[in-house]
Amino acid sequence: MRESPLGRKLQHLRLLTKLEVMKKNFRQVSPEDFDVEKLLAAAREGRLYVEEHEKGVSEEEIKKEVRAYVARVKAFVTKDFRQSADALWEQLLACDELFELMKPSPKARLCRTFNKYNVVSMIGVQREKGVYEPYSDRKFDALLEPDVAESPYRRYLGAGIEKYALLVKIRQIVGQFRL
Fold this sequence. Notes:
There is one protein chain. It is elongated and about 70 Å long. Helix 5 packs antiparallel against helix 9. By secondary structure, it is an all-alpha fold. Helix content is 49%, strand content 0%.
C-alpha cells in the first residue's frame, strides 16, 4: 500500500496546544490524500482536533421550551389572569427585545435551550405585578425545577430585569391583560 502525503504528515503530528491549533493554517484534503487508518490512529492518540460549530437552537424550539417551562407554574396564576396567562406569555414571546433575553447564551453550560435565568426573572416581575400568587421563591422553584432540591435559578425570581426599558416593556404587556 502506497503511503499518502497526508499519512506521512500524520506520522509527524504532535500534540498541539489549543492556541497552536487556532493559529495553524488548514488546507483542503483531496480523497486521494486521505488515509482513514492514520486519521483514526491520530484520534486514538489524542492528536486529532476538529473545529466545533455552534449548535444553534431554533426560535420555535426556544418558544416551545419556554411555554413548557412556564406551564409548570400555571397553578400559581391569580384569578385575574387565569384566562389570559397563556396569551400574556405569547405576547412576551412575540416581543423581539424580550425574546432576545430568552435565547441561550453561546457559552451557557446549564440552560442550553433557553435562558432560564431571564425567564425566571420575567416570572418574578409578573409575580410582582399580580399575575402569579405571591408565594415564596422556594415554592416557585419546587415547581420550576422539580428534580433539584435547590436550583441556581431561584434567586432570580426577585431579581427583576436589569435593563429598565425591558422591565417597563414587561409591565406594559402585563398592564394590557389586567382586568
